[in-house]
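Chapter review: from sequence to fold.
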Amino acid sequence: MLSITSQYLARYRRLAGDRSDTLLPVTGAQRRFVLVRALDPTGRPDLVPMFFAFPSGTVDPERLGAAARRLAARHTALRSRPTVVRGTPVLSVATDPDVTVTRPVAPAPGESPADAVRRALASWDAHGPALRLFLVHDEERAEDVLAVVLDHAVCDGRSLARIVDELGAAYAEEATGALPEPGETEAELSAYRDAVLGQLAAEEKAETPEAAAYWADRLNALRTHAPAPRPARVPEGAKPSGAAQARLPAHDGGVSFPGLLDACRSAARELYGPDRVVPLGYPWGGRPTGAEPVIGCFLNTLVFPVDTGRGHVDGHGTEATADAWWDDLDRADVPFDAVVAAVRSAGPGWTGGLDGLLTVDDDSRRPPLVLDGVEGREVHIDGRPVRAPFAVSVTQGAEIRLRMVWDRAVLDDESAHRAFDALTHALRPTDRTAR
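The token string follows.
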């Protein structure tokens, strides 16, 4: 029987025909985001926003728009639109990038600039360009807030640093209207296609019967344990999601990934109770061997079954977590939809929903956005919709910056704050039993 990746490639080749320069295949990671969007009743895509505050008057919208168009023209993924054609997810490549700097409607009386940004993102048209910029004036702070937002299907976390760096460099260029030469865009298109095909080849090779059996057994205890959504639980006038953050000291190089998984177990125990197995998703992977470091979406979503009944006993909890995690990484190239199919074929239960998300970043890979010598201050705009009941992001460097957001239609604020306290407690240096 053909693997999911093999079936996808066969459908893509029949569909693309002689249009392979304008219809590109997608990686397993992209396939997940495109299909999730297609199955969402509102058609809402997953977005990757970055927010930067500049002193008022620093940003020239026309110059910034020209810079963003040059950036998108250079990178195939950024001038493409994720779509589904005859049931097949693809990237539709545009000849000319359609990127503008939008100034959202000014905040109404009593609203903040962040409200204007949230409103702009909530109205995102899934059929529009994958890269968009929004600029909002904050009169109270005498700042302009710039939102650089991407459809997640064209960009993973490893692309963000390059996007920020090249956007700043394009802004500094003098020829505000000049786009890259055709030869440059054609070379990048070829490199991007080769990278995607290389990734699909790796995924096709990874989809073995043995790997399917491994994931079916590994995730056989999963159910989606989050309480059923209850929109009425959202406090009147409250944003769709809540948020909490903390800064913790980093010792001995920070926290290992298994240590972070165990900390998420502590949070999940507060949210779902003991003796549950909670599906926690996290991005992992990279560009295929030998591929150019193209901008795109290549990080697969792996699933870790968080057993809330387990804990730390003289460090053995984290050691067991590490052993299981390393075994998972040996099968990390199996795409998410193939893992779901393997689990479902083994019996009723998990259907692919995630109760939690974990992302980890290194602050050395997140350079500031510099526009004409002025460094923007990265800020957060919370209150936006969350795809999972809760999501944890960790940035490691000289300190540990910890954030957790949660869907208020699923989790109440009191429970979420207890979970966040448990998460921070598990990550404090004196509480670590293994690294």
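Two observations follow directly from the output. DSSP finds eleven helices and 16 strands in the chain. The two ends are 42 Å apart (CA to CA).
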